[in-house]
Design brief:
Strand order of the largest sheet: 2-1-6-5-7
Helix content: 25-40%
Function: Specifically methylates guanosine-37 in various tRNAs.
Number of strands: 9
Pfam families: tRNA_m1G_MT (PF01746)
Radius of gyration: 22 Å
Main location: cytoplasm
Shape: elongated
Protein name: tRNA (guanine-N(1)-)-methyltransferase
InterPro entries: Alpha/beta_knot_MTases, tRNA_m1G_MeTrfase_C_sf, tRNA_m1G_MeTrfase_TrmD, tRNA_m1G_MTases_N, tRNA_MeTrfase_TRMD/TRM10
Oligomer: single chain
Bound molecules: methyl 2-azanylpyridine-4-carboxylate
Length: 229
């Protein structure tokens, strides 16, 4: 999978070199290229923003640098990429969207800053790829970079070969629409707190039933919305 990221703070993505995704990049499973939006400006101050038409506080990201950046990244020969713009005004990013995007051959992420990106950029981008505005939740960040880091990790770890044991991806929160069950490891008693006896019983059927009950109970109490669908 090829991943391109456009940002005015490209060094933030140096963090992707650490852990699993770093190994996946070295092994060629993930080809991640980060681009500085200012490389697509042509004035002395490398300007990427300007005041909003219609007035209002803050600054809006200019369309020209974005147009040139997207043109440079999405070559003619490209398979049509998915172009993701993280936004609090986007559809909710979920595990099922992460799984869907983990099968895309080419993802492009555009990190907005300031009060956002000129709306015409999203329209132009839809000529080059399938545009998705995606939100991590109902809150606002200063920029899209942290959201893109989270999305790349959530998507990248689902790419076959990135996570050593694919079995470990199956019983995770949200994979089956429920929250995951609680986990325990040695010692059996810790600070007078014991591991649930069923987990020490060796009765695999009873363990599976207990875990399912725990998933349902946790989801009922913490995320009843997941059961409403
Ligand atoms: C600038 O981007 C954001 O503020 C943002 C992006 C994705 N999800 C959010 N909840 C916020």
């Amino acid at each position: 999978m090829r991943i391109d990221v456009v940002s005015i703070f490209p060094t933030i993505f140096d963090a992707l070199e650490v852990s699993l995704l770093g190994k996946a990049r070295q092994s060629g499973l993930l080809d991640v290229q980060v681009h500085d939006l200012r490389a697509f400006t042509h004035d002395r101050h490398r300007t990427v923003d300007d005041t909003p038409y219609g007035g209002g506080a803050g600054m809006v990201m200019k369309p020209e640098p974005w147009g040139e950046a997207l043109d440079a990244i999405v070559g003619e020969a490209d398979p049509r990429p998915v172009i993701v713009f993280p936004s609090p005004a986007g559809e909710r990013f979920t595990q099922s969207i992460a799984r869907e995007l983990s099968t895309a051959p080419h993802l492009v992420f555009g990190c907005g800053r300031y009060e956002g990106i000129d709306e015409r950029v999203f329209d132009y981008a839809s000529e080059l790829g399938d545009v998705r505005l995606l939100s991590l939740g109902d809150y606002v960040l200063n920029g899209g970079e942290v959201a893109v880091m989270a999305m790349i990790e959530a998507i990248g770890r689902l790419v076959p070969g990135v996570v050593g044991n694919p079995e470990s991806l199956v019983e995770e929160s949200h994979e089956d629409g429920l929250l995951e069950y609680p986990s325990f490891t040695k010692p059996a008693t810790w600070r007078e707190r014991e591991v649930p006896p069923v987990l020490l019983s060796g009765n695999h059927g009873a363990v599976a039933r207990w875990r399912r009950e725990q998933q349902l109970e946790r989801t009922r109490t913490r995320r009843p919305d997941l059961l409403a669908d």
